[in-house]
Write a structure and sequence with these properties.
InterPro entries: PA_dom_sf (IPR046450), PA_domain (IPR003137). The chain is about 20% helix and about 20% strand. It is of the alpha/beta class and about 160 residues long.
Length: about 160
């Protein structure tokens, strides 16, 4: 009999929790930006891109530059100086936006390495067939803390094939 009362009480408690609890819905928002490609004609157009969740986002602004895809260190996971690569633009020239492939390291590290090489912005080519994702920073540890807070250039990821 005591076992029956205990299960009856548990059932009643569970029912009351269901009745009086509020349903909770969560939503994750990917902050999008438009990327307009003006040339070459094969990829010309406006594309959705997701902005990085680190660094300084350029809300409401616009930038113009020349996109470069490095011949080496294509994922941007290593220091570009190790390859003798610089993205510093000459005075009066358009700034360089570095295109890197997704994978092998954190998005923030890719941006940090390109920034240190002189890039004005970074575009990460996402070859994974999925909805746009936010480029997030890793959990801060001693290694990532050195660069996450010091990223000052904008970055975005895009699903388009730019090569």
């Amino acid at each position: 009999m005591g076992c029956f009362k205990r299960s009856e009480s548990a059932l009643l408690l569970g029912f009351l929790v269901l009745i009086f609890s509020e349903s909770v819905l969560g939503r994750f928002v990917v902050e999008k930006n438009s990327l307009r490609v003006t040339s070459p004609d094969s990829i010309k157009g406006t594309h959705d891109s997701a902005i990085g969740n680190f660094g300084i986002p350029q809300y409401g602004g616009s930038m113009a530059g020349t996109v470069v895809f490095p011949k080496e260190n294509r994922k941007g996971c290593k220091n570009f100086d190790d390859f003798g690569i610089s993205f510093k633009s000459k005075p009066g020239a358009l700034p360089f936006f570095v295109l890197v492939d997704r994978g092998d390291c954190f998005f923030a590290l890719k941006v940090w390495n390109a920034q240190n090489a002189g890039a004005a912005a970074v575009l990460v080519a996402d070859d994974v067939e999925e909805a746009l994702i936010t480029m997030d920073s890793p959990e801060e540890d001693s290694a990532s803390a050195k660069y996450i807070a010091n990223i000052t250039i904008p970055s975005a990821t895009d699903r388009e094939k730019f090569r």
